[in-house]
Inverse folding.
């Protein structure tokens, strides 16, 4: 796969990112929403690594490490929120969680 | 020696009272509650007094340094922050510069000595006078703050900082007049003082602006001669333009309005008599000895500008003279002992202004000094009388006290001869000096001199009347009833502070009755001030005028000169005083029993009595004009303009905002996915905008 | 032009990743979504591997496909959400608007891509990808140290290498002072000279390299193959043995060593972010413990 142009990876990453966006917007299960966010983050990781190879620079990969660390923290917190939410609401349908309104 | 090494200490003069203020403000009440009433009050009052006296000590050190200073100017610049030699910048914005600095010169140090010296004595007096007050700590907090601001006023090296002190003493005056704020009348008197002073302060503020506009600086003097007074002496305004009489007219009149407000000159005198609602030490310190003379101090400081304009000088002289005789006539008719002294103060301030108007600022300041001695003495003596009579202020219920309160009587006697102008007591020298210069005013000099002499006679008369009614006539009160009922019932035509002075001292000795002499803490200041009133004049006799010679470096040279020789003046002045005293003697000696010249019926029918007794209707006129008519206008504006137009506009804006929020709040659904959707919409819009701009750039 | 196998593999893998991503979104059962996400992560790990990011690929499998996905499944099971639950849909507009916006979004991305003239050509043929032994400027990690070492020529190998360089470059190195940051010009010069050395005759001489600690790979290559055929590769390996810190190692852009060095090198900007991230993770752990704690 050495001859695959960098642009192809970028297009793939864009597609995966958009799928993630759609998932965040249309899913009602917050766990799946989190999965879609992971999908988006991974799509971004792909661009970092593809461009890192393109420019022969290790910084692309360095960013990915930080993205992964933040993602891990975010998942830990997010799932904690979901568990707490479930405890108090007995459901996790985010359309039934609308306390942040006027 | 052109330097003043002790100038570095000048920050201590202001710093010590400030320290006292802060200490009492935070810990005063705590100390009194923790250490008990007796001990705690002694600590608080003692500390406040000691700090003012310490400040006086520092002033003395600098004063002695100033005496031995050589050179023409006798001037030093220092910081108001203790131990700092260089003034620090207070405001420094784009050419507008004001320092937090002190100007040490004869004028400022003289005022420091008066303020801290007399102030210290009055603090001492107040420790006795206020002993029973529940707000003892608050009183000394205000008093120390007043001393601080007064010292800032006199020491400031620029007119803006002087204004800070000016407003500060105004604030303290207000706080102390309405010290017993539980009585509405006192609050009203405080408000009146504050509001009338605002009128004058507008003039002062405009004067500051005019000075900055014409000179480009607000500093009085600088070491390298760049201050605006330096420029005024050199005859140069900003940008090399000439300092003309017109400029001096504008600045001088504006500043004079300010001085009128603070120093209670006609027509802004109306606040001072009402200010007697405050405790008597306050009346003595603020409303007789120090703050009210700030106008004279300011005019003296500004003398290089004032002397440039003949018109300003004449206006100052005429207003001063008119105020002097005007207030003296009112003082003739007052029955409240403090009101008599209040109008007397207004009248004496008129004399000081007359001196300034004659160009004899040194003479004006001399009268400030001697007046501080004898008027503080008279007020404190009156306080002692009031104290002795369990808060009786109405002279119609006094009399025969000369044998009962001997020390008070003797000290009051000293004050009386001093203010009447009997040689060789303090008042004689200063009053004579002013009248001598007034006679030298080249237009109407002799007329002014004549009116001044009449005023002197009136002064002698009303002061003798006061002495008669209080000390010499027969006793007109029931001694046994004293102290049984605190405040005398039907004297409410007199002063408002009547009942209030009552709760301050009354509780001190609740079980004693009858006339009682005041405690030593009150008598000691009286004796010291009496001594000063007797001998204080000798610092400025025409034979060896140490006083005016000392002040010379601070004052502009003017064309002032004596219009009458010393001997003629002294003779005429003494005769005027003698006439006043003799007239009072002949009239009152026959009426020892009643102490009244006219019966109530005669008073009611006599317009010549009624007019001054009603304060020449000035207060009533102001009340009608500003309070009633002005109030009606204000009500009309409130009902029509404010409620309909302004509130309508505000309500309309609020209504429209409400309408939109009602509309937009529906966007805030609380659904996370809706928020995510709007976020994506934003992202898409940004991307499209970026693309659009990129395509435009490429198209070029 | 021959059939491009690598492109075909790319398209197959890309298809799998897009398909699994779509299934993550389309599935109503969260467990299945999670499993498809694992598939997606694995495919991405393969991409990472081929993009010379070996370490990241390993982390992707271990952390993402492993730990994070286990966490997801654990929460799903904990909350007993395994069965597809009929979640009430609110309003009808969310889905169509979302999809429309997503379409606008990706098409504008595509438009943006078509507007650009494409990526700049890659700076050099990536050494790790095709095994090129040549240096780019970026490969010189510590130009100052490299210039110092070359100038000083403390050991015979370094001195020899310097002497092989162009006289002008030697003069520039001699003029280099420690306090200066090496100019871009000097870095380019050094890179050019190093590449020339790679291209040149075999640098190895036991005497000359006696003070250099040769890596196992270099020794293996020196011992086994015919020296003439792998001359460039041997030269490159020898150079990176002489300057172990100063220049990047061939084949190792994504290796743990490279990443670790970049991470902890004080001259690189990554150390502070790394520490901050660890604090963030700590906060995350504490936060999730607090959130999930049973109250009362």
């Amino acid at each position: 796969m050495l001859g695959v142009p960098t642009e192809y990876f970028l297009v793939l990453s864009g597609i995966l990112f958009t799928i993630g966006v759609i998932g965040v917007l249309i899913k009602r299960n917050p766990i799946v929403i989190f999965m879609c966010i992971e999908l988006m983050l991974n799509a971004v990781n792909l661009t970092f690594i593809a461009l890192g190879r393109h420019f022969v620079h290790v910084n692309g990969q360095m960013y990915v490490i930080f993205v992964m660390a933040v993602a891990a923290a975010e998942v830990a917190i997010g799932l904690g929120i979901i568990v707490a939410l479930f405890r108090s609401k007995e459901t996790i349908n985010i359309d039934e969680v609308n306390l942040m309104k006027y | 020696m052109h330097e003043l090494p002790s100038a570095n200490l000048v920050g201590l003069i202001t710093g010590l009272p400030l320290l006292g203020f802060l200490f009492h403000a935070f810990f005063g009440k705590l100390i009194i509650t923790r250490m008990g009433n007796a001990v705690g009050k002694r600590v608080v009052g003692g500390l406040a007094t000691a700090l003012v006296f310490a400040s006086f000590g520092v002033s003395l050190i600098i004063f002695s340094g100033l005496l031995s200073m050589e050179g023409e100017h006798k001037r030093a610049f220092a910081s108001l922050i203790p131990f700092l030699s260089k003034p620090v910048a207070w405001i420094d914005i784009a050419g507008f510069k004001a320092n937090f600095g002190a100007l040490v010169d004869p004028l400022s140090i003289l005022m420091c000595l008066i303020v801290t010296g007399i102030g210290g004595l009055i603090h001492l007096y107040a420790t006795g006078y206020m002993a029973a007050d529940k707000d003892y700590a608050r009183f000394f907090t205000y008093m120390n703050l007043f001393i601080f601001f007064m010292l800032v006023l006199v020491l400031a090296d620029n007119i803006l900082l002087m204004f800070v002190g000016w407003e500060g003493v105004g604030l303290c005056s207000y706080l102390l007049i309405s010290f017993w704020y539980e009585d509405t009348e006192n609050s009203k008197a405080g408000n009146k003082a504050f509001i009338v002073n605002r009128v004058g302060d507008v003039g002062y503020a405009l004067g500051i602006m005019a000075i900055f506009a014409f000179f480009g600086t607000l500093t009085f003097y600088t070491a390298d001669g760049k201050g605006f007074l330096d420029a005024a002496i050199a005859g140069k305004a900003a940008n090399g333009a000439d300092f003309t009489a017109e400029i001096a007219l504008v600045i001088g009149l504006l500043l004079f309005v300010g001085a009128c407000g603070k120093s209670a000159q006609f027509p802004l005198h109306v606040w001072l008599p009402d200010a007697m609602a405050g405790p008597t030490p306050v009346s003595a310190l603020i409303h007789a000895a120090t703050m009210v003379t700030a106008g004279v101090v300011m005019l003296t400081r500004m003398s290089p500008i004032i002397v440039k304009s003949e018109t300003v000088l004449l206006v100052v002289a005429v207003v001063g003279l008119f105020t002097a005789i005007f207030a003296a006539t009112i003082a003739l008719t007052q029955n409240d002992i403090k009101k008599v002294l209040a109008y007397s103060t207004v009248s004496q301030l008129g004399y000081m202004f007359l001196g300034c108007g004659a160009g004899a600022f040194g003479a004006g300041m001399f009268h400030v000094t001697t007046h501080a001695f004898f008027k503080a003495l008279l007020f404190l003596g009156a306080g002692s009388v009031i104290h002795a009579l369990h808060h009786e202020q109405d002279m119609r219920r006094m009399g025969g006290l000369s044998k009962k309160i001997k020390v008070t009587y003797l000290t009051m006697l000293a004050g009386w001869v001093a203010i009447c102008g009997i040689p060789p007591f303090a008042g004689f020298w200063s009053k004579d000096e002013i009248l001598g210069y007034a006679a030298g005013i080249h237009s109407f000099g002799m007329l002014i001199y004549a009116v001044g002499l009449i005023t002197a006679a009136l002064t002698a008369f009303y002061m003798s009347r006061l002495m008669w009614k209080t000390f010499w006539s027969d006793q007109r009160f029931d001694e046994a009833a004293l102290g049984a009922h605190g405040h005398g019932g039907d004297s409410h035509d007199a002063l408002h502070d009547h009942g209030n002075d009552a709760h301050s001292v009354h509780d001190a000795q609740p079980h004693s009755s009858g006339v009682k002499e005041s405690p030593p803490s009150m008598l000691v200041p009286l004796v010291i001030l009496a001594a000063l009133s007797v001998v204080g004049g000798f610092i400025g006799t025409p034979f060896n005028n140490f006083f005016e010679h000392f002040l010379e470096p601070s004052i502009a040279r003017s064309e002032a000169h004596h219009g009458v020789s010393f001997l003629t003046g002294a003779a005429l002045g003494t005769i005027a005083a003698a006439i006043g005293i003799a007239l009072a003697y002949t009239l009152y000696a026959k009426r020892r029993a009643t102490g009244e010249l006219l019966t109530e019926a005669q008073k009611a029918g006599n317009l010549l009595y009624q007019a001054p007794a009603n304060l020449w209707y000035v207060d009533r006129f102001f009340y009608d004009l500003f309070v009633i008519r002005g109030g009606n206008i204000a009500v009309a504006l409130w009902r029509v303009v404010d409620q309909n137009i302004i509130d309508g506009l505000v309500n309309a804006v609020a209504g429209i905002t409400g309408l939109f929020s009602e509309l937009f709040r529906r966007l805030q659904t609380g659904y996370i996915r809706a928020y995510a959707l709007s976020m994506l919409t934003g992202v898409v819009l940004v991307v499209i905008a970026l693309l659009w701009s990129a395509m435009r750039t490429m198209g070029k | 032009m021959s059939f491009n196998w690598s492109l075909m593999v790319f398209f197959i893998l890309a298809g799998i990743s897009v398909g699994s991503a779509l299934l993550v979104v389309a599935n109503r059962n969260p467990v299945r979504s999670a499993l498809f996400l694992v598939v997606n992560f694995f495919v991405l790990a393969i991409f990472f591997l081929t993009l010379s990011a070996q370490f990241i690929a390993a982390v992707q499998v271990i952390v993402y496909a492993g730990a994070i996905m286990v966490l997801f499944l654990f929460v799903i099971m904990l909350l007993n959400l395994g069965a597809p639950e009929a979640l009430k849909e609110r309003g009808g507009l969310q889905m169509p608007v979302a999809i429309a916006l997503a379409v606008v979004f990706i098409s504008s991305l595509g438009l943006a891509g078509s507007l650009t003239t494409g990526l700049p050509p890659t700076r050099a043929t990536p050494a790790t990808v095709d095994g090129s032994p040549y240096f780019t400027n970026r490969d010189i990690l510590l130009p100052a140290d490299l210039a110092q070492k070359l100038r000083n020529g403390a050991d015979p190998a370094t001195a020899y290498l310097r002497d092989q360089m162009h006289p002008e470059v030697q003069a520039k190195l001699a003029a280099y002072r420690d306090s200066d940051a090496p100019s871009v010009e000097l870095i380019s010069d050094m890179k050019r000279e190093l590449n020339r050395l790679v291209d040149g005759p075999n640098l190895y001489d036991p005497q000359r390299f006696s003070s250099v600690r040769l890596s196992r790979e270099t020794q293996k290559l020196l011992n086994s193959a015919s020296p003439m055929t792998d001359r460039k590769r041997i030269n490159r390996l020898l150079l990176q043995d002489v300057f172990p810190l100063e220049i990047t190692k061939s084949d190792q852009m994504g290796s743990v060593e490279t990443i670790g060095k970049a991470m902890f090198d004080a001259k690189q900007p990554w150390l502070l972010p790394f520490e901050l991230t660890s604090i963030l993770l700590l906060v995350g752990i504490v936060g999730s413990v607090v959130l999930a704690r049973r109250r009362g």
Summary: Chain C is about 65% helix and 0% strand. Chain C has two domains: 1-83, 127-251. Chain C touches chain A through 92 residues (CB under 8 Å). Confidence is low (pLDDT under 50) at residues 124-131 of chain C.
